[in-house]
Prior knowledge:
The complex is a heterodimer of chains A (348) and B (164).
Chain A: H1 2-36, H2 46-54, E1 60-63, E2 66-68, E3 71-76, E4 80-85, E5 94-95, E6 98-101, E7 104-107, E8 121-122, H3 127-152, H4 160-181, H5 189-207, H6 218-235, H7 238-245, H8 254-297, H9 302-340
Antiparallel strand pairs in A: 1-2, 3-4, 3-8, 5-6, 6-7
Helix pairs in contact in A: 1-8, 1-9, 2-8, 3-4, 3-5, 4-9, 5-9, 6-8, 6-9, 8-9
Chain B: H1 8-145, H2 147-160
Helix pairs in contact in B: 1-2
Amino acid sequence: MSKRILLTVFTAVITSFFAFSQHQEHAEAQKATGHENHESEEKFDISGMIMHHISDEHGWEFAHGLKLPLPVILYTHDSGLEIFSSSRLDHGQVYNGWKNEHEHIVKVNADGTVNEAIHPWDFSITKNVASLLLSAVLLILIFTAVKKGYDKNKGKAPSGIQSFLEPVILYMRDDVVKPAIGKNYEKYFPYLLTLFFFILINNLLGLLPGGANLTGNIAITMTMAVITFLIVNLNGNKYYWKHVFMPDTPKLMWIILIPVEIVGVFMKPLSLMIRLFANITAGHIIMLSLFGLIFIFQNWAVSPVVAGFALFMNLIELLVAFLQALIFTLLTSMYIGSAIEDHSHDHH
Amino acid sequence: MELLKPAVGLLFWMVVVFAVLVFLMKKFAWSGIISALKEREGEIESALKMAEETRAEMAKLKSDNEKLIADARKERDQIIKEAKEVADKMVADAKENAIVQGNKIMADAREAMAQEKTKMMSQIRKDVATISLEIAEKVLRKELSDKSKQESFVDELLGDVKLN
């Protein structure tokens, strides 16, 4: 019970902090836009604000005026690799002919016009890349600590972070991976655990104020979906391929079924990619829309209502963070399971 | 739509970082954790199995003990029964012996008495004969001297004679 209260208070604090940082940022952002564009001083661009928050950026802006500069890494065929701080491009500055146009780095000519001929390869450490690295480091620190727990408490009851995460690992093994894949689960289990905890930690980091929308980025979900696709189709046995190309139906039905099955092979990872991306991004959009209401109404009286809704949404997002990590892992396990299943019995 | 276009840079970093992460996690965390979990489960399982075996052994020992006790009890009952039988037999034998002995003594006594009686009877018979002869002699003698006197004498003599 006390744990639940603690969790509620914790979430409330986070939410209010989030709300506060949004307040400040947008009050000031509004001022800033007001400076540049006097005509639209009263108008608040909510979709622009939301898009800005759910997309990637060069440098990590925690709140307005508090921006962590990150390295910009550009590669062009002509001038090779160029590395400089993202702070050199802040506020529309031009550095070495590079300009940050809506988070796309473009080459500008001396007269300020964009040079369309040059398209640099942008390998910058953006907010998302920094968040990705942070989550990777966190995961390694957490799970080497867990492993140390097993070395230290050999033959004894688990303790500390080990006892906190052991039920999760056991749940993943006994209720997700093992039933979905079957007896040959051990080969895929380490990858699936990494996948689950990677999605989970990034979902949770994304909920923190100033956090990146990493698992709500299509590039991230695409990579994981492609890995799932590769594992499933490289390990698929003859029953799996027979099911795709020679289904147990009258031959006339193959005209319809084979294309459907082939589409299904690609649809499965595609749905994984879209599901995680859409769920996490949608959560962020809802939260940002709620905070945006304050600026649309231009009335402080709506903030308690918004805070109430935002708290509620944040709790739901907390649930979604766990749920989506679980679903992605569970579905990947099931796809692998169906591809390596030993005997083929009809499962339509 | 901007959101649906994967950024090449992020894609590149994701592939690199995720591959390294999967490798490092497998090498430094999961293999150790998974094998430790399996090992511990094996230990728990063997401990449970041993407990089960011990319990079965205990049950077997207990039933053995009970069997031993039951056997001992049976043996004791047997011994008591046999002893009782022996004692009963002894008593019965003694009783029978006594009866036989008694009977024998009685028979001997009876025989002795009968012998004594025959002896006595023959003696009496002999005595009666002797006395009769004596009386006859005396009567004859008196008769020869005095008739009346002889008669009174016979009476007198007869009075003397007491058949015992």
